[in-house]
Amino acid sequence: MKDPRASEDPGTILDSLTYDDTSAAPPLPPTSVEIEHAMTVVRSLKMSPEMDRRVKEAAAAHCVTQSMLIRQYIEMGLAAEQPERMIPLSDAIRVLSNLRPSA
């Protein structure tokens, strides 16, 4: 369905808009700090210094905390345990395109 105002001059459309400064602003999405504070279960784990270095580097590269990165990796691992679960086609193509050609 075509927008009936699509052929109008953009300036006319802007001039016809009304603004209400009294309405409340919509809530913002939670910050990473708020997400971290919402986590209620604490687990500890042991890793080698080399793995710790790699986790730090990967977290920095993704601009997330080490805890967030580890949670994301755990979620990906758990998702892989559900073969019946559908994945987006774009994810499948991305993974398959990175495979080495077979001999």
From TrEMBL:
Residues 1-31 are annotated as: Disordered. This is Ribbon-helix-helix protein CopG domain-containing protein. It comes from Nocardia bovistercoris.
